[in-house]
Amino acid sequence: MYLFWRFFSLKKRPTSLGFVILTIHAPCPICLDWDKACRCQAIQKLTTCPVRMFPLQLLSLFNIAVATIFEEEKKKKQVVPHDVSIYKRGDLLEVPRTLFTHFGIYLGNNRVAHLIPDILPVLTTDQKVLEKMVTNNRLILGVIAKKASVRLDSVEDFAYGAEILVNHMDKVCSRPPFPSEEVATRAEKLMGSVSYSLLWYNCEHYVMYCRYGTSMSFQTYQFCKAVRKIVCSKTSSLLSLLVCLFIMFYLESVSIFIILPTFFIPSTIWMAS
Protein backbone atom coordinates (compact mmCIF):
# COMPACT_ATOMS: atom_id res chain seq x y z
CA MET A 1 0.00 0.00 0.00
CA TYR A 2 2.87 2.34 0.78
CA LEU A 3 4.47 1.86 -2.64
CA PHE A 4 1.07 2.26 -4.28
CA TRP A 5 0.55 5.52 -2.36
CA ARG A 6 4.05 6.83 -3.22
CA PHE A 7 3.66 5.99 -6.88
CA PHE A 8 0.40 7.91 -7.21
CA SER A 9 1.09 10.60 -4.61
CA LEU A 10 -0.04 14.08 -5.66
CA LYS A 11 1.50 17.43 -4.90
CA LYS A 12 -0.38 20.70 -5.08
CA ARG A 13 1.44 23.60 -6.73
CA PRO A 14 -0.39 26.96 -6.63
CA THR A 15 -0.18 29.37 -9.56
CA SER A 16 -0.51 33.14 -9.83
CA LEU A 17 -4.00 32.78 -11.34
CA GLY A 18 -5.34 30.98 -8.31
CA PHE A 19 -5.55 27.58 -9.95
CA VAL A 20 -3.93 24.52 -8.48
CA ILE A 21 -1.77 22.29 -10.69
CA LEU A 22 -1.49 18.70 -9.59
CA THR A 23 1.82 16.97 -10.35
CA ILE A 24 2.26 13.23 -10.13
CA HIS A 25 5.46 11.91 -8.54
CA ALA A 26 6.76 8.70 -10.07
CA PRO A 27 10.01 6.77 -9.66
CA CYS A 28 12.83 6.91 -12.19
CA PRO A 29 11.79 4.77 -15.19
CA ILE A 30 15.34 3.49 -15.53
CA CYS A 31 16.40 2.47 -12.06
CA LEU A 32 12.98 2.76 -10.24
CA ASP A 33 14.53 5.03 -7.62
CA TRP A 34 12.49 7.75 -5.89
CA ASP A 35 15.53 9.94 -5.29
CA LYS A 36 15.25 13.30 -7.08
CA ALA A 37 19.03 13.42 -7.50
CA CYS A 38 18.95 10.32 -9.72
CA ARG A 39 21.40 10.77 -12.61
CA CYS A 40 19.84 8.21 -14.97
CA GLN A 41 17.87 10.87 -16.81
CA ALA A 42 20.98 13.02 -17.29
CA ILE A 43 22.91 10.05 -18.61
CA GLN A 44 20.07 9.19 -20.95
CA LYS A 45 20.03 12.77 -22.30
CA LEU A 46 23.81 12.66 -22.76
CA THR A 47 23.71 9.43 -24.71
CA THR A 48 20.88 10.65 -26.96
CA CYS A 49 22.41 14.06 -27.74
CA PRO A 50 24.17 13.83 -31.14
CA VAL A 51 26.61 16.67 -30.37
CA ARG A 52 27.73 15.19 -27.07
CA MET A 53 27.89 11.69 -28.48
CA PHE A 54 30.17 12.65 -31.41
CA PRO A 55 33.47 12.24 -29.44
CA LEU A 56 32.29 8.86 -28.15
CA GLN A 57 31.30 7.73 -31.65
CA LEU A 58 34.65 8.93 -33.00
CA LEU A 59 36.46 7.02 -30.26
CA SER A 60 34.47 3.88 -31.04
CA LEU A 61 35.40 4.15 -34.73
CA PHE A 62 39.05 4.53 -33.74
CA ASN A 63 38.83 1.44 -31.54
CA ILE A 64 37.23 -0.51 -34.40
CA ALA A 65 40.00 0.60 -36.78
CA VAL A 66 42.74 -0.37 -34.32
CA ALA A 67 41.08 -3.74 -33.74
CA THR A 68 40.86 -4.32 -37.51
CA ILE A 69 44.54 -3.50 -38.00
CA PHE A 70 45.44 -5.76 -35.09
CA GLU A 71 43.45 -8.61 -36.61
CA GLU A 72 45.16 -8.09 -39.99
CA GLU A 73 48.60 -8.14 -38.37
CA LYS A 74 47.60 -11.25 -36.44
CA LYS A 75 46.56 -12.97 -39.67
CA LYS A 76 49.84 -11.98 -41.33
CA LYS A 77 51.84 -13.46 -38.49
CA GLN A 78 50.05 -16.78 -38.86
CA VAL A 79 52.12 -19.34 -40.73
CA VAL A 80 50.68 -19.87 -44.20
CA PRO A 81 51.86 -23.16 -45.73
CA HIS A 82 53.53 -22.86 -49.13
CA ASP A 83 54.08 -25.70 -51.56
CA VAL A 84 57.87 -25.59 -51.86
CA SER A 85 57.83 -28.28 -54.54
CA ILE A 86 56.61 -25.81 -57.18
CA TYR A 87 59.67 -23.58 -56.74
CA LYS A 88 62.84 -24.24 -58.70
CA ARG A 89 66.37 -23.16 -57.96
CA GLY A 90 66.90 -19.70 -59.45
CA ASP A 91 63.22 -18.69 -59.43
CA LEU A 92 62.42 -15.07 -58.66
CA LEU A 93 59.93 -14.92 -55.78
CA GLU A 94 57.75 -11.86 -55.35
CA VAL A 95 55.70 -11.00 -52.24
CA PRO A 96 53.19 -8.13 -52.59
CA ARG A 97 52.94 -6.05 -49.42
CA THR A 98 50.76 -3.07 -48.49
CA LEU A 99 53.11 -0.27 -49.60
CA PHE A 100 55.76 -2.16 -51.53
CA THR A 101 56.74 -5.52 -53.01
CA HIS A 102 59.52 -7.68 -51.61
CA PHE A 103 61.73 -9.86 -53.84
CA GLY A 104 64.01 -12.86 -53.38
CA ILE A 105 65.78 -15.66 -55.23
CA TYR A 106 64.90 -19.26 -54.41
CA LEU A 107 68.01 -21.41 -53.84
CA GLY A 108 66.34 -24.74 -53.12
CA ASN A 109 65.78 -26.71 -49.90
CA ASN A 110 63.26 -24.14 -48.60
CA ARG A 111 65.86 -21.33 -48.72
CA VAL A 112 65.36 -17.84 -50.16
CA ALA A 113 68.15 -15.30 -50.66
CA HIS A 114 66.88 -11.75 -50.31
CA LEU A 115 68.22 -8.31 -49.54
CA ILE A 116 66.59 -6.75 -46.49
CA PRO A 117 67.48 -3.71 -44.35
CA ASP A 118 68.96 -4.77 -41.03
CA ILE A 119 70.77 -2.77 -38.36
CA LEU A 120 71.92 -5.82 -36.38
CA PRO A 121 75.05 -6.70 -38.47
CA VAL A 122 76.43 -3.28 -37.52
CA LEU A 123 75.98 -4.00 -33.81
CA THR A 124 77.01 -7.66 -33.50
CA THR A 125 78.76 -10.50 -35.29
CA ASP A 126 76.99 -13.30 -33.41
CA GLN A 127 75.64 -15.57 -36.14
CA LYS A 128 73.01 -17.11 -33.86
CA VAL A 129 71.51 -13.67 -33.29
CA LEU A 130 71.79 -12.65 -36.94
CA GLU A 131 70.07 -15.82 -38.17
CA LYS A 132 66.83 -14.87 -36.42
CA MET A 133 64.08 -13.37 -38.58
CA VAL A 134 64.43 -9.62 -39.11
CA THR A 135 61.88 -7.73 -37.03
CA ASN A 136 60.21 -4.46 -38.00
CA ASN A 137 62.42 -2.49 -35.60
CA ARG A 138 65.58 -3.94 -37.13
CA LEU A 139 64.26 -3.22 -40.61
CA ILE A 140 63.34 0.43 -39.91
CA LEU A 141 66.66 1.16 -38.21
CA GLY A 142 68.44 -0.48 -41.13
CA VAL A 143 66.64 1.79 -43.60
CA ILE A 144 67.62 4.86 -41.57
CA ALA A 145 71.25 3.73 -41.21
CA LYS A 146 71.35 2.59 -44.88
CA LYS A 147 72.56 -0.86 -43.83
CA ALA A 148 71.26 -4.15 -45.19
CA SER A 149 72.27 -7.76 -45.66
CA VAL A 150 71.68 -10.43 -48.27
CA ARG A 151 70.57 -13.36 -46.12
CA LEU A 152 68.95 -16.78 -46.29
CA ASP A 153 65.51 -17.33 -44.81
CA SER A 154 62.86 -19.99 -45.10
CA VAL A 155 60.00 -19.49 -47.54
CA GLU A 156 57.59 -18.90 -44.63
CA ASP A 157 59.78 -16.21 -43.04
CA PHE A 158 60.36 -14.60 -46.42
CA ALA A 159 56.65 -14.49 -47.31
CA TYR A 160 55.53 -13.34 -43.82
CA GLY A 161 52.04 -14.71 -44.34
CA ALA A 162 51.50 -13.32 -47.85
CA GLU A 163 51.10 -15.06 -51.17
CA ILE A 164 54.12 -15.60 -53.42
CA LEU A 165 54.33 -14.85 -57.14
CA VAL A 166 56.88 -16.85 -59.15
CA ASN A 167 58.86 -15.26 -62.00
CA HIS A 168 56.28 -12.53 -62.45
CA MET A 169 59.01 -10.09 -63.56
CA ASP A 170 59.68 -12.20 -66.68
CA LYS A 171 56.56 -10.62 -68.18
CA VAL A 172 57.73 -7.08 -67.35
CA CYS A 173 61.46 -7.08 -68.03
CA SER A 174 62.53 -6.85 -71.68
CA ARG A 175 65.70 -8.86 -71.07
CA PRO A 176 65.58 -12.66 -71.03
CA PRO A 177 66.50 -14.31 -67.72
CA PHE A 178 69.77 -16.12 -67.16
CA PRO A 179 69.79 -19.91 -66.71
CA SER A 180 68.48 -20.96 -63.33
CA GLU A 181 71.84 -22.19 -61.98
CA GLU A 182 73.57 -18.96 -62.99
CA VAL A 183 70.87 -16.92 -61.27
CA ALA A 184 71.32 -18.89 -58.04
CA THR A 185 75.12 -18.60 -58.26
CA ARG A 186 74.97 -14.83 -58.72
CA ALA A 187 72.63 -14.58 -55.73
CA GLU A 188 74.94 -16.64 -53.51
CA LYS A 189 78.01 -14.56 -54.40
CA LEU A 190 76.38 -11.40 -53.01
CA MET A 191 75.60 -12.87 -49.59
CA GLY A 192 76.55 -10.72 -46.61
CA SER A 193 76.33 -7.09 -45.49
CA VAL A 194 75.78 -4.44 -48.15
CA SER A 195 74.95 -0.75 -48.31
CA TYR A 196 71.27 0.03 -48.70
CA SER A 197 69.31 2.76 -50.42
CA LEU A 198 65.54 2.85 -50.47
CA LEU A 199 65.53 4.26 -54.02
CA TRP A 200 68.84 3.29 -55.60
CA TYR A 201 69.68 -0.16 -54.19
CA ASN A 202 66.95 -2.24 -52.63
CA CYS A 203 65.72 -5.85 -52.84
CA GLU A 204 64.41 -5.35 -56.39
CA HIS A 205 67.77 -4.10 -57.64
CA TYR A 206 69.37 -7.21 -56.15
CA VAL A 207 67.08 -9.77 -57.80
CA MET A 208 67.03 -7.92 -61.12
CA TYR A 209 70.83 -8.06 -61.24
CA CYS A 210 70.87 -11.75 -60.34
CA ARG A 211 68.24 -12.85 -62.87
CA TYR A 212 68.51 -10.34 -65.74
CA GLY A 213 71.94 -8.75 -65.33
CA THR A 214 70.58 -5.22 -64.90
CA SER A 215 70.29 -3.42 -61.57
CA MET A 216 67.01 -1.55 -61.76
CA SER A 217 63.76 -1.16 -59.84
CA PHE A 218 60.33 -0.61 -61.34
CA GLN A 219 59.04 0.47 -57.93
CA THR A 220 61.66 3.22 -57.76
CA TYR A 221 60.82 4.30 -61.29
CA GLN A 222 57.12 4.57 -60.52
CA PHE A 223 57.82 6.50 -57.31
CA CYS A 224 60.17 8.98 -59.02
CA LYS A 225 57.66 9.38 -61.83
CA ALA A 226 54.91 10.26 -59.35
CA VAL A 227 57.15 12.73 -57.49
CA ARG A 228 58.21 14.34 -60.76
CA LYS A 229 54.58 14.68 -61.80
CA ILE A 230 53.78 16.50 -58.55
CA VAL A 231 56.89 18.67 -58.19
CA CYS A 232 57.69 19.44 -61.82
CA SER A 233 54.28 20.79 -62.76
CA LYS A 234 52.92 24.17 -63.81
CA THR A 235 50.96 24.39 -60.58
CA SER A 236 54.13 23.90 -58.51
CA SER A 237 55.87 26.55 -60.61
CA LEU A 238 53.15 29.12 -59.91
CA LEU A 239 53.04 28.23 -56.22
CA SER A 240 56.81 28.59 -55.91
CA LEU A 241 56.60 32.01 -57.60
CA LEU A 242 53.94 33.14 -55.12
CA VAL A 243 55.99 31.86 -52.17
CA CYS A 244 59.12 33.62 -53.39
CA LEU A 245 57.21 36.89 -53.90
CA PHE A 246 55.68 36.58 -50.44
CA ILE A 247 59.12 36.09 -48.88
CA MET A 248 60.52 39.04 -50.82
CA PHE A 249 57.75 41.40 -49.70
CA TYR A 250 57.76 40.01 -46.16
CA LEU A 251 61.50 40.66 -45.80
CA GLU A 252 61.10 44.01 -47.58
CA SER A 253 64.26 43.34 -49.51
CA VAL A 254 64.98 43.73 -53.23
CA SER A 255 68.58 42.60 -53.15
CA ILE A 256 70.09 40.43 -55.85
CA PHE A 257 70.09 37.43 -53.43
CA ILE A 258 66.29 37.64 -53.20
CA ILE A 259 65.43 38.56 -56.79
CA LEU A 260 67.46 35.78 -58.44
CA PRO A 261 65.84 32.85 -56.54
CA THR A 262 62.42 34.47 -56.97
CA PHE A 263 62.62 34.10 -60.74
CA PHE A 264 65.17 31.30 -61.13
CA ILE A 265 63.35 28.63 -59.09
CA PRO A 266 59.87 29.06 -60.66
CA SER A 267 61.32 29.31 -64.16
CA THR A 268 63.35 26.11 -63.68
CA ILE A 269 60.29 24.20 -62.48
CA TRP A 270 58.25 25.67 -65.35
CA MET A 271 60.78 24.48 -67.95
CA ALA A 272 60.94 21.01 -66.33
CA SER A 273 57.16 20.63 -66.28
Beta-strand residue percentage: 15-25%
DSSP strand count: 8
* SSE run: HEEHHEEEHHHEHEHEHHHH
Major sheet strand order: 7-3-4-5-6-8
Q: Uncertain segments of ≥5 residues (pLDDT<50)?
A: 1-25, 50-54, 64-70, 74-79
- Characterize the main sheet: 6 strands, antiparallel
What proportion of the residues is helical, as a percent range?
40-55%
Rg for CA atoms:
34 Å
Q: Provide the residue-averaged pLDDT.
A: 76
| Basic shape | elongated
Cα end-to-end separation: 90 Å
Helices and strands: which structural class? alpha+beta
Task: Figure out the total of helices.
Answer: 12
What's the short story on this structure?
This protein has helices spanning 2-7, 40-48, 50-77, 120-123, 127-130, 136-145, 155-159, 180-189, 203-212, 218-231, 234-251, 256-272, and strands at residues 10-14, 20-24, 92-96, 101-108, 111-117, 147-153, 165-166, 192-195. The chain is an alpha+beta fold and 273 residues long.
What would your notes on this structure say?
By secondary structure, the chain is an alpha+beta fold. It contains twelve helices and eight strands. The strands form two sheets. Strands 7-3-4-5-6-8 form a six-stranded antiparallel β-sheet. A two-stranded antiparallel sheet has the order 1-2. A hairpin with a 4-residue loop joins strand 3 and strand 4. The N and C termini lie far apart (90 Å). Residues 1-25, 50-54, 64-70 and 74-79 have low confidence and may be disordered.
